[in-house]
Amino acid sequence: MMMDNELSLPSPGHSLSAHASQSGESAAAAMRIAAKKTRSREIMLAYACLAPSLLIFGLFLFYPLLKSVYLSLFLTDPQGRVAEFVGLDNFKEILASEMFYTSFWNTLLFILLTVPTGIAAAILLAALTHNKLRGMKIFRFIFSLPMAVSVGTGSMIWMILYHPTLGILNYFLSLLGSQPIQWLTDPKWAMISVALMTIWMNLGFNYILMLSGMQGVSEDIYDSTKIDGSGPLRTFFRITMPLISPTLFFTSVVSVIGAFQAFGQINILTKGGPINSTNVMVFNIYQDAFVNFRFGIGSAQALILFAIILLLTVFQFKFVEKKVHYQ
Amino acid sequence: MNMRLMPKSFIYTALLLCSLAVLFPLLYTLSTSLMSEAESAVYPPPLLPEAINLSNFAKVIDTIPVLTFIGNSLIVSIAIMLGQIVTASLAAYAFAFLRFPGKTLLFSLFLATMMIPWEVIMIPNYLTVKSLNWLDTYQGLIVPFLATAFGTFLLRQTFLQLPKELFEAARVDGCGHVRTFLSMVLPLSIPGIATLGVYSFLNNWNMYLWPLLTTNRVEMRTVQIGIGMLQFEEMNSWNLILSGVLLLLLPSLLLLALGLKPLVRGITAGALKG
Amino acid sequence: MKRFGKRSFALLLLSCFMLISAACSNTPAAGETTVAAGSKPAQDPVKVVWWHSMSGELGTVADKLISDFNATHQDIQVEGVFQGTYDESLNKLKASLGSKSGPTMIQVYEIGSRFMMDTKAIRPVQDFMDAEAYDISSLEPNIKNYYTFDGKLHSMPFNSSNPILYYNKDAFKAAGLDPENPPKTYEEVAEAAKALTKGGQTGASFAIYGWFMEQFLANQGAELLNNGNGRNSPATASQVNNAAAVKTLEWWKKMLDDKVLLNLGRKTDDTKKAFAAGQIAMTLDSTASLRGIVSAAEGKFEVGTAFLPKPADGGEGGVIIGGASLWMMNNKSEEEQQAAWEFMKYLAEPQTQAYWHVNTGYFPVTTKAYDEPLVKENLEKYPQFQTAVDQLHQTKANLATQGAVMGVFPEARQLTETAIEEVLNGQKTPQEALDKAAQEISSKIETYNKTVK
Predict the structure, then answer these.
(1) How far apart are CA B245 and CA B239, in angstroms?
(2) What is the pTM of this model?
(3) Which residues, 6 or more positions from B255, have their beta carbon under 8 angstroms from its beta carbon?
(4) Which ipTM score applies to this complex?
(5) Domains and CATH numbers, chain B
(6) Within a domain: C30
(7) C310 secondary structure, DSSP code
(8) Which residue does chain C place closest to B37, by CA atoms?
(9) Which of B182, C87, C292, C333 has the maximum number of C-beta atoms within 10 A of its C-beta?
């Protein structure tokens, strides 16, 4: 994973052994003992530093996850207590059900619709504001504004914008002479509409990441391209893109994980409908566990989802990160 | 694109169009929040209210205890933010500068926590908090969120970007890890820490399901629940809902206005450059 | 190197833990509710916690009822807590089962009734009624029937509603239809819709809401589930694919194909807004929306109301009660339960129900409320409400109109809604879509039954 470039800093262990090779035998032995002591202290210190985080993660993330593993092997009664051991039946049922595949493809579609477009929009806006012209402060603030909007409030606003007959978006369409679009009730449009809202909502954060990435690129590089007489597009794809590739990589990893977990906007805007066209995996899990009160099958699905995200992230780190250009 | 090579007028036109698109939902919210109920539900939808109508805000404040909610949200969000900065910077220091067995494994474990959908582990967590008798308390709202994989990841990258020469010098001076951490790494990473702070605050401010689940008394509730209280099963008044949305957005907008600069600088300062 | 000793190590640890504990040791604000402040009750009043899902205006009215009760009952202190939507609230209840953190009483939607009984965490209100020979003869029979299982009233009816047909009287006049003689059958609705469709106006739109489908079936006397709608013994199979349902969907789809009906999705809020804006001339909605719809249409057009339509050759039936009821949890002290029972009785009193009805649009659960002057005034102001009352009273009591019961009701509703969407979008014929829905619902019921013993 990202450990390839770890420890760029000389640690005490390192510098000590370097010294030791130059000193006499007895001194070296003494140093070795000291080094060993320092080393064990370093390890203790490291664990102490990690302890608070691990404690919280253990209690509030891994323990419930293990509980999910346990629950996934049972049917639960209306009180949510285990009622009957069913082994892997829950998993078999999920893998045999049409709904699982529908929600899986919906999730992939949602990721495809939101992640590349969201990042592209952020790059465009960041590029437009990455200069020293007047008024950039205001534009930067405007483009990062959606970051302040929560899923709940954002969905509420868009629900009203998307209203089938009174919504202002359809009104604009009618001014353009177009037929109204059933944004959230046409199975062909619903996912696109939810994706559009999501792109808007995530734009603020993605934009800030991209802008920061571009500001990190040294001015000298641009100056030299200016002298070369390289055009703006060429400069962008040849120079800027590779230089911000670490940012791009980070943003895409975080966005993909975020897209897998998108829940609030779907719950408020479409509830997975129409005809399950926006029923993504997390929503399906929520439905099974918290609306239909089947913790067993909900947990089993959650574990499958977890495994998918894990595999995909490992993949991103193993293969995609190779292409990332670290300075 | 490298904008210095393009005509200014082109850039400004593009910027204005994009701003309009990005701002539109928020401007619409502002405009509708000032309308009367009848205005907010006619076709064709008016773009601007006929008269500035502030009574919606009064009605919202009347329906939900906005100030209590904002106070609670501030306490919870700030506490989580500070806690996350402490735990994440400690963990990031270990991952960036210390050698210990199981490092790769533990780092993967940290990253893996980002992938667990929160909705899925909510009920077991509720049971944990309940058994600790933390329902209706600030710690119930705060403690489960005190550690952050995202923040650890971010700060680790920041720490790794710090100039190595400084540490060499410190080492020669006989500066221990604690001193190094407190007097060098932390002060030098202020921008990165500010980034984490703003990001964490906004996320906490926006939590909905967890505060709903773990609080029973109105005095303990947070702002996002207020939105739910404005929705009405039978007939929603858009003007009312949107003025509530606007009221609850104000604090986070303010923070963004103040925090944008450190946010951008923090990420620029090398947080994401491996 | 010396400086890096145990002391600094411990200091670091200490400092990090101190920060964390400082962050979380803020104990909750001591501010208990202010009501008890100046008063001097000999002993502390019994505290009753009521979880409800009443938000917006409804929430304000519910709060008023609570404060009125508290003001007149010195020895009882009711605390009403909004717990999110019915789903969210039920979730939370479930998580709290087996501990003291739950409420004394909770408001649950009608389709959660089977589920509530199966939790075995509730006490039927019949217990309290029997103990003091509480007179339930004035309870609205239709409402009472719904919440009666195995001969016992399990929960106390609180907010009840029905679907009715809303129509735009002005549009009827303009289209040459008689505004005082609204359509009664599917066929008449289709004809009226055709006449009403012109310009920017479409004849009708019904939200894709499983509740309407359940009502259409009951209105034709058709049962939704086997084993007497799940009332004779727990249901094992769904009958949502019966002839009555197929006929309903064919009618619905036909109007859509003829472009005299719009598909505006699942949210009744969307059809309601379109109706109030004059974009559609007929819609289905709950009686509880009446006030909202009439006031939204004020100055634009006159609102008419009519019975839920049914096919000309449909069987005898009527409407099922919708809304929610109040459930008593069985894990609180006897004293607390008694106090909650007092509150339930208060909520069912004619005056309380009159106030509730007039301010929310839900039916009074007691027929005595209709004698209250408040209700009479209201009926004068909103004569449209008489339709709803008549529809309720003309409903023929049978298993179909008593309402189906199953533990997986919320899910069944969703599956039905998906089936309607499949038909309206032309993906399946009514029979195909409903067959599939019935089969899926039956399999969910089967799994559920396995977990309840």
Answers:
(1) 10
(2) 0.82
(3) A148, B198, B201, B202
(4) 0.81
(5) 54-271 (1.10.3720.10)
(6) no
(7) B
(8) C296
(9) C292
